[in-house]
Request: fold
Amino acid sequence: MKIIMKNKKGDIPITILVLGIVAVCILAIVSFYASSWKVQKNFDIQIVEEINLIKEKADFYSNLGFTKEEIDSALNIKYDSQGRYILLAREGISVRYDFPR
Reply:
């Protein structure tokens, strides 16, 4: 079976279009891989888990009948204009948890 090409002028732009699409796809894949590698390298999930642990401790102490002042001094909870909060910072990442009012 022989394929006969009738319009050879259309082959070059289509080839350039296909190669351009393939190049953009490869560039996107490399970009996603590089950004995920940077995020995994810099993001520490332990700090988020530590904030959750402090929050659960505060809820537990509150259920036991401790006052807010006792809980705040025991867990190093601070106050500002937005209310009560915990702030932990490590190596380029800081997490702030605002307690509900």
Notes: Residues 5 and 11 are 9 Å apart (CA to CA).
